[in-house]
């Protein structure tokens, strides 16, 4: 779906936008759940109304994968969008192909420089290369644990599990079967399709492992702590508290709503969706710990593409700066459940009122204290595909966790060797 958001060229800009009329293309991944498309359209229209010299075509490009593919194709063909929201983990790919600007080159005033430093450090780990900022956090997230409070009460449980051991124990108490022995409610559901590496990183991080080092050029897939995390994930199905086989990402919230699982791991970006559609009282908690608390960050950054005129690039920079300010960022976070990316946004009256009314919104923010960068390397899509394939091989029982991860490490080494 393509939405053309046009405003007549008239008068002077009201908000420090360029004096000359400019047309911008903005690629946005609409397939992110919640009220994303409507909110982006409202915010874009608001900016256009305040900046009569700027016209923006908001091009809703599909999934994250669809969006980066379309942006890369357009850029390689000399027709790049001026700006786009793309996964933070694709930063190395965009940088390696020399497709994006460093925001530092445009943040020349003290105000602009302060803006670049205003975001949570954990989000900036997937936004900077060699000390320069190439991505601006926008629809950022962490995975969190959602749980059905009614199912918990029925099983005699109150608080969410705090550790791996507790989660497996709770999941056993929450798993229900009918008279024929068929499972009617699983204890926990951790999706292994869509973004399997991302949720699995919640286990590797809490087990003290680091998946990537050396500025995105070295993976540690065969680390014994990673193997242990995968063995734990597989054991949830073997021990009968999670459905066997590959668990679908997109179907997980619906399974939660319908009582097919009492706990689920998914993005905080699903928070508004769960709030609107869960027919029961639910809770939100940080991911359970083993050696430590921990979770990866995730989601998308704004990127500023090369190839546009000076006027277009400056206008795109101005729009990105505007939409990431506390008032706009609060509106986005409240509408979608994504984590507001700066402390200043959380200090705004809008976010304080929202958090007071809906305390679960604070869980992902508080988890940032324990968060690490999402798995991101050069040739990221190839490397994550290798890793996902290894996870699937272990989950389906085709290979042991150790063998699958050893093979993945060898393949990733072959891909990344040239970048070291």
TrEMBL record:
The keyword Signal applies. One of its GO terms (cellular component) is periplasmic space. The keyword Signal applies. InterPro entries: Bact_solute-bd_prot1, SBP. SUPFAM superfamilies: Periplasmic binding protein-like II (SSF53850). Keywords: Signal. This is sn-glycerol-3-phosphate-binding periplasmic protein UgpB. The lineage of its organism: Bacteria, Pseudomonadati, Pseudomonadota, Alphaproteobacteria, Rhodobacterales. The gene is ugpB_2.
């Amino acid at each position: 779906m393509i939405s053309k958001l046009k405003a007549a060229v008239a008068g002077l800009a009201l908000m420090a936008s360029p004096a000359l009329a400019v047309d911008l293309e903005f690629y946005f991944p609409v397939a992110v759940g919640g009220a994303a498309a409507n909110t982006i359209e409202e915010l874009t229209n608001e900016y256009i109304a305040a900046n009569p010299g700027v016209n923006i075509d908001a091009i809703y490009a599909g999934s994250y994968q669809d969006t980066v593919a379309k942006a890369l194709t357009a850029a390689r063909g000399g027709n790049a969008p001026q700006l786009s929201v793309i996964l933070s983990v694709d930063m190395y790919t965009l940088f390696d192909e020399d497709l994006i600007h460093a925001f530092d080159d445009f943040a020349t005033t003290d105000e602009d420089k302060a803006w670049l430093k205003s975001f949570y450090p954990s989000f900036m780990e997937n936004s900077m290369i060699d000390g320069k900022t190439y991505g601006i956090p926008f629809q950022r997230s962490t995975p969190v644990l959602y749980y059905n409070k009614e199912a918990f009460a029925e099983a005699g449980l109150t608080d969410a599990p705090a550790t791996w051991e507790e989660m497996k124990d709770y999941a056993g108490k929450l798993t229900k079967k009918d008279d024929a022995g068929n499972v009617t409610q699983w204890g926990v559901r951790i999706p292994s399709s869509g973004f399997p590496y991302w949720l699995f990183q919640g286990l590797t991080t809490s087990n003290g492992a680091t998946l990537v080092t050396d500025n995105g050029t070295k993976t540690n897939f065969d680390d014994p702590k990673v193997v242990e995390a995968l063995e734990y994930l597989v054991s949830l199905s073997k021990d009968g508290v999670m459905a066997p086989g590959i668990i679908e990402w997109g179907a997980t919230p619906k399974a939660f709503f319908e009582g097919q699982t009492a706990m689920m791991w998914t993005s905080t970006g699903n928070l508004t969706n769960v709030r609107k559609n869960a027919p029961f009282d639910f809770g939100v908690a940080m991911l359970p710990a083993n050696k430590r608390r921990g979770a990866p960050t995730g989601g998308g950054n704004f990127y500023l593409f090369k190839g546009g005129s000076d006027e277009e690039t400056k206008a795109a920079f101005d729009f990105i700066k505007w939409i990431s300010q506390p008032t706009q960022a609060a509106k986005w976070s409240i509408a979608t459940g994504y984590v507001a990316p700066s402390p200043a946004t959380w200090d705004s009256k809008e976010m304080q009122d929202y958090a007071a009314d809906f305390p679960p919104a604070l869980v992902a923010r508080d988890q940032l204290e324990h968060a690490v960068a999402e798995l991101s390397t050069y040739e990221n899509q190839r490397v994550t595909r290798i890793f996902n394939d290894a996870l699937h091989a272990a989950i389906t029982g085709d290979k042991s966790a150790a063998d699958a991860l050893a093979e993945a490490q060898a393949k990733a080494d072959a891909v990344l060797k040239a970048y070291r």
